[in-house]
């Protein structure tokens, strides 16, 4: 299953009725790239089903991961990072600045683009679930069909999770839309969406393989996402604390599988050679440059200097409180995640270790988790895979699940949080010790930011822990950023507005309160 990224196809479902196949580096089919293939003609054998499934993987790539121009609103950046407390945005940050400042309205273009992109992706994945699931036994082996449908259900959950996290009150589309008739659907309660996601993952689990996957969905990925969703259900808006034990059970299965482990060196996790390592429970495959499958990792978050020299765009800077949360002298995550150098003046290897290269002022430090080579020819189209769920995340989620039940022990802390801190180079004095349930939660939330920064989960984490408003209120650093969001933030902005363009198209939609 390695190098599955090479088999992604750029595809587009027109209301699920047409699949446009364009070439990639290793195409399954020999059709001309511009050929339109009717699903009934394609879905006649295993090869056709695999091709159709590739469209579902591509849909997730184009909506969740930080990809290039074909994805105007990547969820991991727009929702997960922009309006949290890892970065701040300057005045030239475009509509991302509005998200950071909590100035979005129902007419903000980026919010409408996100809604359209995510529902387009969802419909493409629903088409796979419905159409591959309907194939007969003489067209495809039943076990393989069940696996393909299970993979698609996991992918569908990633998009539904993005939708319900961002807007809370959303239409729950359980099947492919193939006609413009009767599309004026109503919104489901968030609890119904969460229950549907849980059911999708549970039904998928028996049919998924147990290996790492190399970009394909596996049982470990499904259990990890199930545990993450259960934990999200314990916080706002559901506050279902009975989900802590269920999260513990799902995450323990990942830990007991023997498939995943931490890499010994933090920096190596994000090397191109390790993008599908044993630490990646599920990483969304990207490929580039010039293949139409590349990403923005390393450029959206990158040091000062030109892109060709390994620099980034300069559209966001590091939040001071985030930088200050590290032990600046010993935590290797600090020097690997935060750029204090100019890429035009030094190479990435030197910038990690040579303090004389750290010439950039604190106000314009930048994120730097994916260290693009210098020089490189990526042109904002890098091949770095996006880590949707890492094993480090699983360990921290597991500790959180136990703490939520007041069952956390020092032994569990040592095998989760302190494993990460030891890898990061912290001394025994920097290890976490068991405290009160509240103190433990504070430590776990802080550790998640230091370990998982820029991976797209921070806003969900803050909301789940009940710390979102407090965190936004703490951004008061001044400097070249566009302002402090606390001057704009109101409680209802914990969710995004339903786009006005969508409400005009569908009169059954109800705007989220406050907008």
UniProtKB/TrEMBL annotation:
<feature type="domain" description="SusD-like N-terminal">
    <location>
        <begin position="100"/>
        <end position="231"/>
    </location>
</feature>
<feature type="domain" description="RagB/SusD">
    <location>
        <begin position="308"/>
        <end position="515"/>
    </location>
</feature>
<dbReference type="InterPro" id="IPR012944">
    <property type="entry name" value="SusD_RagB_dom"/>
</dbReference>
<dbReference type="Pfam" id="PF14322">
    <property type="entry name" value="SusD-like_3"/>
</dbReference>
<keyword id="KW-0472">Membrane</keyword>
<protein>
    <submittedName>
        <fullName>Starch-binding associating with outer membrane</fullName>
    </submittedName>
</protein>
<dbReference type="Pfam" id="PF07980">
    <property type="entry name" value="SusD_RagB"/>
</dbReference>
<dbReference type="InterPro" id="IPR033985">
    <property type="entry name" value="SusD-like_N"/>
</dbReference>
<dbReference type="GO" id="GO:0009279">
    <property type="term" value="C:cell outer membrane"/>
</dbReference>
<dbReference type="InterPro" id="IPR011990">
    <property type="entry name" value="TPR-like_helical_dom_sf"/>
</dbReference>
<keyword id="KW-0732">Signal</keyword>
<keyword id="KW-0998">Cell outer membrane</keyword>
<comment type="similarity">
    <text>Belongs to the SusD family.</text>
</comment>
């Amino acid at each position: 299953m390695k190098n599955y990224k090479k088999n992604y196809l750029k595809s587009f479902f027109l209301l699920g009725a047409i699949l446009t196949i364009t070439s990639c580096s290793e195409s399954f089919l020999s059709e001309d790239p511009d050929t339109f293939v009717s699903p009934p003609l394609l879905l006649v054998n295993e090869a056709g089903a695999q091709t159709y499934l590739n469209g579902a993987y591509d849909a997730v790539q184009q909506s969740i991961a930080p990809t290039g121009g074909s994805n105007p609103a990547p969820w991991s950046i727009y929702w997960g990072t922009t309006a949290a407390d890892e970065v701040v945005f300057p005045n030239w940050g475009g509509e991302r600045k509005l998200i950071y400042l909590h100035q979005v309205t129902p007419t903000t273009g980026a919010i409408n683009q996100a809604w359209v992109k995510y529902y387009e992706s969802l419909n493409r994945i629903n088409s796979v679930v419905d159409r591959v699931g309907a194939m007969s036994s003489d067209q495809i082996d039943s076990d393989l069909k069940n696996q393909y449908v299970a993979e698609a259900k996991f992918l569908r959950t990633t998009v539904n999770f993005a939708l319900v996290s961002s807007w809370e009150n959303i239409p729950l589309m359980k099947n492919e839309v193939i006609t413009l008739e009767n599309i004026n659907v109503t919104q489901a309660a968030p609890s119904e969406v969460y229950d549907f996601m849980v059911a999708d993952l549970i039904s998928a689990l028996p049919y998924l393989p147990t290996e790492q996957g190399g970009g394909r969905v596996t049982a470990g990925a499904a259990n990890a996402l199930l545990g993450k969703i259960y934990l999200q259900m314990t916080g706002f808006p559901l506050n279902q604390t009975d989900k802590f034990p269920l999260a513990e059970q799902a995450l323990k299965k990942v830990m007991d599988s023997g498939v995943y482990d931490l890499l010994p060196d933090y920096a190596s996790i994000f090397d191109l050679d390790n993008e599908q390592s044993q630490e990646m429970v599920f990483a969304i495959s990207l490929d580039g440059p010039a293949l139409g499958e590349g990403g923005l990792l390393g450029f959206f978050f990158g040091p000062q200097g030109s892109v060709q020299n390994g620099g980034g765009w300069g559209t966001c800077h590091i939040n001071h409180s985030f930088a200050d949360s590290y032990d600046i002298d010993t935590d290797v995550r600090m020097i690997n995640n935060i750029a204090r150098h100019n890429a035009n003046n030094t190479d990435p290897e030197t910038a990690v270790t040579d303090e004389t290269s750290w010439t950039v002022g604190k106000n314009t430090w930048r994120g730097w988790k994916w260290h693009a080579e210098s020089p490189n020819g990526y042109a904002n189209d890098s091949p770095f895979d996006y880590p949707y769920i890492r094993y480090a995340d699983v360990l921290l989620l597991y500790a959180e699940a136990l703490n939520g039940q007041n069952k956390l022990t020092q032994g569990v802390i040592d095998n989760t949080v302190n494993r990460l801190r030891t890898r990061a180079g912290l001394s025994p004095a920097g290890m976490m010790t068991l405290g009160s349930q509240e103190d433990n939660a504070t430590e776990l939330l802080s550790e998640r930011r230091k370990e998982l920064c820029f991976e797209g989960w921070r806003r969900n984490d803050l909301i789940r822990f009940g710390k979102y408003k407090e965190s936004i209120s703490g951004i008061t650093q001044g400097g070249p950023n566009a302002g402090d969001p606390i001057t704009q933030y109101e409680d209802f902005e914990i969710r995004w507005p339903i786009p006005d363009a969508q409400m005009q198209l569908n009169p059954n939609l109800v705007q989220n309160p406050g907008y």
